[in-house]
Write a structure and sequence with these properties.
The chain has about 400 residues and is an alpha/beta fold. The protein has one domain (about 5-235, about 310-389): 3-Layer(aba) Sandwich (Rossmann fold). About 30% of the residues lie in helices and about 15% in strands. The chain has helices at about 65-75, 135-145, 175-190, 200-215, 230-240, 245-265, 280-295, 300-305, 335-340, 370-389; strands at about 10-15, 25-30, 85-95, 100-105, 110, 110-115, 120-125, 150-155, 195-200, 220-225, 320-325, 345-350. The longest helix is centred in the middle third of the chain and has 21 residues, at about 245-265.
Amino acid sequence: MSRVRSPLAAPIRTHRISPTFPNRRDSVIPESLEDKSLENEGFDDPPAELPEWLTPFQPRRGLSNGHLQTILGNFWPRPAFNLDSIAETVEVDPADGSRVLCHCHWQTAPEAADRPLPSRLTVVLVHGLEGSSDSQYIQGIAARAWDAGCNVIRMNMRNCADTDALTPTLYHSGLSGDVGAVVTHFAERFGLKRVALVGYSMGGNLVLKLAGEWGKRAPLFAVAAVCPAIDLAAGADALHEPVNRGYELRFLRGLLRRYARKAELFPKDYVPVKEFGPIRSIRQFDHKIVARYCGFRDSDDYYYRAAAARVVDRIEIPTFILHSLDDPFIRLFPETRAKLVANPHITFVETRHGGHCAYLSRDPGNEIHWAEATLMRFLLAEHEKQNGS
């Protein structure tokens, strides 16, 4: 598969900030982000051959700022989501009985209305940090996948969507096995022939990590990720920058509330949150809570072992990764970017604008959500290609 890389990825410079708790590495941002006069007219000097499914991204007028894109992307209206679904819990860890909640939408044959069509492409959708299967972007891509004739599974990570009682554990960015358990469960139950994964932000890290771990294992055949947090340390430290503190505090409040609920449900397993002392950053939360209860030595050990960056060079199936250079808090280390560009199975696209998982474009109507439309074109193109091979 062709690799696409915006020339805006170079030159790059080291982006240094004073070390935060307990330590950090330096990430990089493109020099071009410093030039406020630059306008995005899609890809600058694009390669001669772009995949047919990939169209240039042009931000909606007035929304060339990454923060505006990020914030408005959470609230921009979409068509009402009225797909009927079947809720089903899936055991993801037999050792402790942990389960996750999935909302399934099955394309069915007239003669077997209660059975999905296994030959149809099945798309498993994975949300981001503190999101759920009802997050707007998940509903948006679900509706598009359904209209394209796909089976759709909207997966919740552990504890999300008010499912804290379904597992005694916390959730974190390294649980790619949960996504694999969901794929295996439904593939075995219904004989699914071809499954694609779509992940946003933290969910993007999970699906890419699983793809690297699984290689060519059937029925997984394609992966797509929007603004994936594959360098966890870089993202955690970027969130603590002054300009991003609003995002960090919003995430942190949700995580601390979730931990408090977990401690109420399982008081023998978790100490009250007040016993940890002040927690003022995502890195501190990961260091004091996630590492302690999820089997990591400290936050650095967690960020290293849970990051998809370690395994993206092992991905062997068609993969589309979309990264915005003005995403406020998703950063890539130079060696990670090099791995993405070098892997022939990955189409890695960097756009100058788009914010975090937003990509509000100049296109009319519901096509304003450019990332969702592009992901579906990629998946359908791969499905058609493999049908013809």
